[in-house]
Design brief:
Elements: E1 2-6, E2 32-35, H1 47-53, E3 60-65, E4 72-73, E5 81-83, E6 86-87, H2 111-115, E7 116-120, H3 123-131, E8 141-143, H4 154-157, H5 159-169, E9 174-178, H6 187-196, E10 199-204, H7 210-216, H8 223-234
Parallel strand pairs: 1-10, 3-7, 5-8, 8-9, 9-10
Antiparallel strand pairs: 2-3, 4-5, 6-7
Helix pairs in contact: 3-5, 5-6
């Protein structure tokens, strides 16, 4: 598959690429739940590292959402269609342009965007119905234009993986934009989709400076971890 690096600003800092897995300990109910975005779904981030890096263990509320459509028509972008499995994002990137979308739900663009996440639990089923429409022409679809499809919630809900399975079954070309190391879980499916229809994974790594990372992306995996996962996917 194609694995691309987006927006990387280099520093002279060296970082540890050691990989340790973290078991999930999520506590989720059908309507809403709270979990730490770092301690649960992202199996490639270490709890002890999060403590030493000084990242706050924020509590996030997750709400299940039934959607009526999944494929979004996009204008002014390199792609014409997008899919967002979630609304809001626990990665808490301060510069995220998608924060304004939470106002459509009468929620704020600050802590609400990163602290109240909506999971589109029926998205895979709705997508399959849309892909079966005679009018659909198998145009390329971008996953994650207004949320990260591999944010911590994906470890529990598995919506992104189910969406990828639907795209694979319909031989639909796909691209993904993510900062989530959980993407490595799906390397088998991503590789198969690439062979069948084409699949590109774009990693967003704005900086490898740990001070800047802590300040601007407090809910994401360390930049070095993202680069390590990118290397594993490229070799898949």
């Amino acid at each position: 598959m194609h694995v691309l690096l987006n927006q990387c600003l280099y520093s002279n800092q060296t970082t540890d690429l050691t990989d340790d897995r973290l078991s999930r300990q999520s506590r989720l109910s059908r309507s809403s739940a709270y979990l730490s975005p770092h301690r649960t779904a992202d199996n490639y981030t270490r709890t002890e590292d999060l403590v030493s890096w000084g990242i706050g263990m924020a509590r996030v509320e997750y709400r299940e959402l039934q959607c009526k459509s999944v494929l979004n028509r996009v204008h002014g972008m390199p792609f014409k269609w997008s899919i967002n499995p979630y609304r809001g994002c626990a990665h808490s990137c301060h510069y995220c342009y998608a924060r304004g979308t939470h106002t459509y739900l009468d929620l704020g663009t600050g802590d609400d965007f990163s602290g109240i996440i909506f999971a589109k639990v029926n998205a895979p089923q709705v997508l399959r119905a849309e892909l079966r429409r005679p009018s659909w022409r198998q145009e390329a679809v971008s996953i994650g234009s207004a949320t990260d499809p591999y944010q911590p919630a994906e470890g529990h809900f598995r919506i992104t993986r189910s969406i990828l399975e639907a795209l694979y079954d319909h031989a639909n070309p796909t691209s993904i934009v993510t900062k989530g190391t959980l993407v490595l879980r799906d390397r088998d499916l991503l590789a198969a989709l690439n062979l069948r229809a084409g699949c590109t994974v774009c990693f967003s790594v704005p900086t490898i400076d740990t001070a800047i990372w802590r300040a601007s992306e407090p809910g994401t995996a360390p930049p070095a971890k993202r680069l390590w996962v990118m290397e594993q996917l490229a070799a898949a």
